[in-house]
Write a structure and sequence with these properties.
mainly beta; 11-stranded mixed beta barrel; 3 helices
Length: 268
């Protein structure tokens, strides 16, 4: 029943991906290709059956690992609305470096972004396959420079963005992803900008990931795989839209900590 309820959303998602791929292939676009490496920590702290704290830090690198691309720190407060539905609100701090042949910032400078977000994740499974839908709304205050002589950003215009991610994962042995179980995961996320400051990038970016993971126990998982990221810059260069096409490695470490009174009393 849940699958049927998301058919329209998923079809819309595929249409957006197809449209963005076609536009990316047009000769009127400038393309900037980079090799990237994303090395990520995710930590969830369960406070009780309903509430939890989520934390993450993503160390994103250009030229696989040698040069900076981006650093992202995100924290949030989670609420388990239903067994298969989780809500979250939070804040993120992002620092972006001037990587690639065509930097995101027009002056070739690094810049800071402050972000508030609201998120809903809906999960389910069909047989051995687990899947999830993640919807996220972001309010982004992105730093920019009014002139090239400045050393720090003096403007932080508001950008709005809507994100949708679909993820599937399946155990590589057994019938479910239990302790000491390897698994395969694939996900795709599309990001759409909106609002008066959206500029060029109504289509903001798309991310495709393919991962092999291993669940050591209920507290720790490790994932490694391939990441493809397509980013449309919010500005034109010589009257042409600019697309980054970034490919490389992604490594995720995922921790779960149970801080509820019940777990602490039992010694877990």
């Amino acid at each position: 029943m849940m699958i049927g309820g998301f058919k329209k959303v998923f079809i819309w998602f595929l249409v957006v991906i197809l449209a963005s791929t076609i536009s990316f292939a047009q000769n009127t676009r400038l393309n900037d290709e980079n090799t990237i490496g994303w090395y990520n920590y995710f930590g969830n702290f369960k406070l009780n059956n309903k509430w939890g704290i989520a934390s993450e830090y993503q160390w994103r690198r250009s030229n696989l690992i040698t040069d900076p691309q981006q650093g992202l720190l995100r924290v949030g407060l989670s609420y388990q609305l239903q067994p298969k539905v989780q809500l979250r609100v939070g804040y993120a701090w992002i620092e972006t470096a001037p990587y690639g042949d065509i930097p995101i910032n027009g002056f070739g400078k690094d810049f800071t972004e402050h972000r508030a977000f609201q998120m809903a994740t809906i999960g389910d499974n069909v047989g051995r396959v687990e899947f999830s839908h993640r919807f996220m709304l972001e309010q982004r205050w992105v730093g920019r420079y009014s002139n090239s002589s400045l050393e720090k950003e003096d403007e932080f215009p508001l950008l709005n963005r809507l994100r949708y991610m679909y993820r599937m994962q399946v155990p590589l042995k057994g019938k479910s992803i239990a302790d000491k179980t390897p698994y395969f995961a694939i996900y795709d996320e599309v990001m759409i900008g909106f609002g008066k400051n959206v500029n060029e990038n109504i289509f903001d970016q798309n991310r495709l990931g393919m991962l092999v993971g291993y669940r050591f126990n209920k507290n720790f998982r490790l994932e490694v795989g391939y990441l493809n990221q397509i980013v449309q810059l919010g500005r034109e260069v010589e009257g042409r839209n600019v697309f980054q096409r970034n490919n490389g490695l992604i490594l995720n470490t995922l921790f779960n900590f149970d801080l509820s009174k019940k777990a602490l009393k039992s010694g877990n």
